[in-house]
Amino acid sequence: MGEDIDVKENAEQDTFSITMELQRPLFVDKLEEINDKNEKKSNIKRKLLLGIGISAVIAVLGTFIWLTQTYSPKETAKAALVSNKNVDVKINDYISFTPKNVEATKGFILYPGAKVEPEVYAPFCEKIAEKGYEVVIIESPLNIPLLGKNDAEKVMNDYRDITHWVVGGHSLGGVAASDFASKNNMVDGVVLLASYPMNDDLKKMGKEVLSIWGSKDGVVNFKDLIKSREKLPESTTYVEVEGANHSQFGDYGLQRGDNEAIITSEKQMNITYKNIVKFLENIN
């Protein structure tokens, strides 16, 4: 009797063992299949993250290269950054041109174009100062004027004796100047050099505006420039400089995408400064 029970139990154990042995390969294969799928997913995820990381690095590097490739001053601009018998030049948080032997009551603040170093505008800014006006060129963060569009406020606070202010800008700098002027009651006028505002705030406020551009400009969008007249006051003064381009409002060479001018840089800047001086004379 006992032997029969033992035989039965052994038979059951053998059957269970055989079943487990038969099922084991199935379990192992299934587990390996799951592991393979998980590994493939992990590899895809790693490759995706790696691709995103590489793209981000390339984007950051590209942006850095773009920002650091600025337009620098040439010899004429460098020479104008030295004080002379008529003008005292100082370079601190911004570049200032202060007329000597006269107390300036009117001031002109200039925003540089995008990626253009402020020193390049020294030649015509020096000439404006020689006529008795305080002139300041703003140094924008990363040479992008929109990043420092309110920097003119610091200049105004530093020159309390100035009773009338005009702000201006070249290209994208004109956009920054327009935006600042539309939010500051101390600004009496705006000068746009190959530029135009993004909205009609100047028109609504009745600010005085001088718009100057070159007939050979290869950078500015002429269609938008003409259309922008709808956003400016009716009293706006328009000056097209025949043969002038975009780059020669400063001394930094030919800007990418611009056309060659058919007048000299000196002539273009002389016309520019004379029109700005005339504009300043009528500000009161």
UniProtKB/TrEMBL annotation:
Where does the chain cross the membrane?
48-67
**What InterPro entries does the annotation carry?**
AB_hydrolase_5, AB_hydrolase_fold
Task: Look up keyword Transmembrane helix and say if it applies.
Answer: yes
Q: Where is the Alpha/beta hydrolase fold-5 domain?
A: 108-269
Q: Which UniProt keywords apply?
A: Hydrolase, Membrane, Transmembrane, Transmembrane helix
Pfam families per UniProt? Abhydrolase_5 (PF12695)
Record has Protein biosynthesis as a keyword: no
- Which GO MF term does the entry hold, naming one? hydrolase activity
Q: Which domain of life is it from?
A: Bacteria
Stated name of the protein:
Alpha/beta hydrolase
